[in-house]
Amino acid sequence: MLADGKIEGVLTKEFKQFHDSRGWLAESFRIDELGDYRPQMGYVSLTYSNVTRGPHEHREQTDYFCFLGKFTLYLWDNRRDSPTYGKRMVIENADRLIVAIPPGIVHAYRNSGDSDGIVLNFPDRLYAGWGKRQPVDEVRYENDPESPFVIES
Known about the structure:
Elements: E1 3-4, E2 11-14, E3 17-20, E4 23-26, E5 43-47, E6 52-57, E7 63-68, E8 71-77, E9 87-91, E10 97-101, E11 105-111, E12 117-121, E13 139-140
């Protein structure tokens, strides 16, 4: 049974902007603030209005998302050995939010805004491994009608 609440190991922080006469700058990450986490690649994605990506989880990968747009983020703790196993966490407006999602946390996000949204990700694993020659570290639930990881419409 799923229950709402904070999930252990999920880190969130403000995507701080530094404004001047030209616009703004924001640090997506700093090595001196990451602890043991080490990104291995980076990518940017655009998500159209009212489109959802996920839910899925990684067995070994930590995702480090930077949201730019009005996104709703859904997280479920699927780690059987976690003190917050079975918890669901929903962040209604993840705009300008940085979120680190460890392995075993099922995650999805929906662009709940009226315009396209941008997401940066700096995961700690290479997609499909070195040279893209290994299996992808994902467990997908999007098309599983028995999945307990349901996103409200």
